[in-house]
Design a protein that fits this description.
3 helices; Nucleotidyltransferase, domain 5; about 120 residues; single chain; alpha/beta; 5 strands; five-stranded mixed beta sheet
């Protein structure tokens, strides 16, 4: 990633401070614009929780994917195999390496690791 490139990252967070929500428990994804050396908060995108106790969640997952489809990656504290596979199938990287870590530091570390 160079200074002129930027990507969008969705973050499952309950407080906007750390990556502290399971993907399935998120009712909002905080979206950040990330470049090689900086990031900025863009917006909150509301979704229905994927893990809500109902058996058929495929429609809910499809709506979540539609809501975050322009993100290059989604950070969460944890994510199940099925949603991780669905994210990957539409070109979104599922990242749970930064569970309970500060969002800003996590974003900048991720940017350093990317070779876009």
């Amino acid at each position: 990633m160079n200074e002129n490139e930027s990507i969008k990252i969705g973050v499952a967070t309950k407080d906007g401070v750390s990556v502290n929500l399971h993907f399935g428990h998120a009712d909002t994804f905080w979206v950040y614009e990330l470049s090689e050396r900086s990031f900025s908060f863009m917006e909150k995108r509301e979704v229905e929780k994927y893990c809500h106790g109902h058996i058929d969640t495929s429609g809910v997952l499809a709506k979540i994917l539609e809501t975050i489809k322009d993100c290059k990656a989604v950070f969460s504290a944890k994510i199940g195999a099925k949603p991780a596979e669905k994210l990957e199938s539409i070109g979104i990287q599922s990242v749970d390496d930064y569970a309970y870590e500060a969002i800003g530091e996590s974003l900048l570390h991720f940017a350093q690791q990317q070779a876009l």
